[in-house]
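Run Extended synaptotagmin-3 through structure prediction, thanks.
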Amino acid sequence: VHFPDVERVEWLNKVLVQAWPYFGTIMEKTFKEVLEPKIRAKSVHLKTCTFTKIHFGEKCPRINGIKAYTKEIDRRQVTLDLQICYIGDCEIHMDISKFNLGVKGVQLYGTLRVILEPLLTDAPFVGAVTLFFMQKPHLEINWAGMSNLLDVPGINVMSDSLIQDFIAARLVLPNRITVPLKKNMNIAHLRFPVPQGVIRVHLLEAENLVQKDNFLGAIRGKSDPYALLRVGTAQHRSKTVSRDLNPIWNETFEFVVHEVPGQDLEVDLYDEDPDKDDFMGSLLIGLVDVMNDRIVDEWFPLSKTSSGHLHLKLEWLSLVNDQEKLHEDKKGLSTAILIVYLESAFNLPKNQFEYSNGECGAKKIKNNKYLKKMEREPSSFVLLTVGNKTQKSKTCNFSKDPKWGQAFTFFVHSAHSQSLHIEIKDKERDSALGTSVVCLSHLLKDPNMTLDQRFQLDHSSSDSFIKMKLVLRALNVEEPDPQRVKAGVNASKPGPVHVKEKAGNQQFSSPPQVSKVAPMSKDSDSAALESLPKKDSGEDLDTKDSSGASVPSETVSGLDGAEGKQNPEHGPPSALPSGAAAVPTLPVLQEMRVAPSVTSLGSLPSSCFELSSSNLDIHNGAEMPLGEIQLTVRYASIRQSLVVLVNGCRNLVPSSNRGVDPYVRIYLLPDRRWTSRKKTSVKKKTLNPQYDEKFEFFESLENVKKRTLDIAVKNSRPFISQERKELGKVRIDLSQEDLIKGFAQW
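Sure, done. The structure for Extended synaptotagmin-3 is below.
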């Protein structure tokens, strides 16, 4: 396996292929013996339901990759992300009173998280397995029968989305399925863990958005942008700003984050139109970096569009058990989060007239049909309300002791004055079977701010209860750690860098900057190396101006300054985000050697890439070095992009007496399309060009790990010239690199 992040598990897919026919036989039996009787018992109209054909087909589900987490999580658990893809040819047909209904093919793909916890010291070594999808899985169903009524576009989408909602209510975060593997295992805390935190998103403004409105197909109008923000299944929409390509929103949204790593913030911009809203760009931000940085205030470049930047301020709020943090926020923002674990109810009345407390005596009903209907056990659901937000539970059919087993979260502005309102309703008659009000101030009397008990229901039978667990947690903004190298975009600010040495390990109070090494001849290598270690001492890296020295101690100011110089009209400086801002300088080798690849020397900045002459058309045939190129490469996980900084070249070999005008061309192989090619500016008549230009490839880390960087130094020559165009080339296999840490090398 070449990619340490996401592993291909072909052996597991082979096991699935071999076992699939046997699984199909088990499922056919289950459908006939278990599912069919259950469907028939649901309703009088379904009594004739019969499965006429059950065949699970030849194609089995495939696992495209598995990612295992062991370091970022609790030591008593193992977390796996399975990328599942099922393009099945299954056929299932059923008859319901003269109607034939069926499915002839299913497509499903999504990321399923499997958590094995707690790990035990005795068999079966794992206490329970928890399963859930990180996002709603993509689902498409080919319907059969009913004259393909369900294939009519509107109904088809509706039926698929109903099934997706059914899956989401059970299997998409925050919902999860937990299966205990050990007897008497208490799985309540595994089914309903306290969320990891809250992300507060300040949607501030955007700049240079693309124009989408056009009139008569030619004259461009201004767009009416709005933003959709998503974390998991929670979604918020901003207001629409009319006729403005530089909109200012200044809105704040809050999301509960259940799983980190795993959940991301997605932002999509649209142009509001009367018919169909036009897409204007999107943004994906990994929440691990925000959690580590605490506060990120950045301009982010939009992807999947030609121009545009979005200004967001992101705050990570941790959940703390501290009543002192519950002071009311003057700006009206949330100060706490209420988590409601709705478990079950007991002895619900069959109808709203069956009160034994005499509030409403049983009324005489003449209609016998209605009376029979009222004799049935209730099909109940719960409405939970805090402030102006109401959430609804699933429905438990025909039971006076329903078990819901669901978790709900509410944002709380004032824990001292707000209340949780509960109303149990009957689906059949839409009537209330009982109500209850819990003041949140009761939670403050408990040191853990938790209540786990039965609550008596009002307007119900005298022995009707609802069992819930309520947990209140204060939202706390922690100050960012000044010692930590920021992963956000503003990590790379220009200015002096203070480096302290501590027991051999270097600590950076602000991100280190990549040194630019001046052009030098072969015999000046040793002089260069003597001057390099000085930069690792306690001095500021860019305090002295060494004019005339062989190695200027000029540094790349903030990696975003380069972009600012490069195209000043391109809006806000989109500095470089990264899992590890700039690369900390490692101890310098005493001797500079030519390295055949990046991997052979790890990430030592002093190692060189030889611009290999083997793949170049060199007419003199001599095996000689063609010069060196300095690159800084790393993965910016907060913006989901690979960042390549081309610093400069040295000792290039001229292809003619006329001199060369070098530029650098970059491909992320295997993509050789002209549109995805990146190219620096051309430097005139020099063999030691300095570029300091930054390029980004918006790809997931899993995809980047499978790619190769193809970097060529070329000569910009006249079209009809006979001169050699390629001056040198280097390829970097990204699967061998620690891209989150990054590397800077010659």
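The first strand starts at residue 50 and ends at 55.
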